[in-house]
Amino acid sequence: MIQASMFECDPDVLESGIEVYWLEGMQLYDENGRNGHANLATIELQHHINGNWMWATSVYGRKGGRGYGISPKWGNFALDHAIAKRNAIKEMVECTMTVLTNDEQDHVRRWAQSI
Description:
With 115 residues, the protein is α+β, with helices and mostly antiparallel strands. The protein has one domain (2-114). It has 2 helices and 7 strands. Strands 1, 2, 3, 4, 5, 6 and 7 form a 7-stranded antiparallel beta sheet that branches. A hairpin with a 5-residue loop joins strand 3 and strand 4.
């Protein structure tokens, strides 16, 4: 059983230096009543040793999900933080929305404009 609960959350910086912007999405309950959550949308940014910034995006909604973790193997590099963030937001809005319902897409778009 999945119960939707959407709340915007502050960005975090992980110990590894990855800056994470995330939008809490789905409150999950298994058959034993245990709960957890899956983020509706996640953007990760990290400064690479080559001086560029990397980004990664993921979404998980009622219809499924897709995304990837941050890694140089994806080739997502930008010259600075602002460009990496803008590229991640653009990717999130244009490329990963096919797995979200219309209301989830609207929520992600509003969230993306706020970060």
